[in-house]
Amino acid sequence: MAPTMLTAISMSAIATNGVVPAGGSYYMISRSLGPEFGGAVGICFYLGTTFAGAMYILGAIELLLIYIAPKGRTHQVCLLGNRTLISKKFDVCAKTIESSNGTMVTTQLWNMFCDSPFLNATCDRYFSDNNVTRIQGSRGHQRILAGGVLNSVGVANPVVVR
After folding, report:
1. More confident position, 86 or 85
2. Does 154 score more than 70 pLDDT?
3. Phi, psi (deg, nearest 5) at residue 54
4. Radius of gyration for the chain, computed over Cα atoms and rounded to the nearest angstrom
5. Residue 111 predicted with pLDDT over 90
6. Dihedral, CA atoms, 37, 40, 43, 49, nearest 10 degrees?
7. Rounded Cα gap, residues 160 and 162, in angstroms
8. Predicted pLDDT of residue 30
9. Exposure pattern of 23-40 as b/e (b: 16+ CB <10 Å)?
10. d(CA 22, CA 7)
11. Are 149 and 85 in contact, with CB atoms under 8 Å apart?
């Protein structure tokens, strides 16, 4: 409210001087009220514009998530640590699963990162140090994250579940 009031008062004081040069409202306030008030109000305008820009971006992203990738179009994404994995190469998003007789059995994902299908196999360090988790994802993000590949050492780049 105060910056708007000061701008209105300054505008009326400068209106008789003609065209306002570059600087806009900051120029008007600093010219009529002095550099002290002009600087204080200029900082308020700067912070207000910065936060407004951030809110515009958040609003745009929210609209994209609501209308482009609504909840009905989500799917499961498999993560190893903080890296997304392509699910074409494995069937279960887990290192091991429990079989019907209660024993632990390794999965196709295990075979991608370890040298043998046995539980005492030597595995990639990143695979050994991180957990495998499944989270909700949306199909709209596939185009952005596409491009990464799995290599023999582990995950080179983030890759997307398809």
Report:
1. 85
2. no
3. -65, -40
4. 29
5. no
6. -60
7. 6
8. 72
9. eebbbbbbbbbeeeebeb
10. 15
11. no
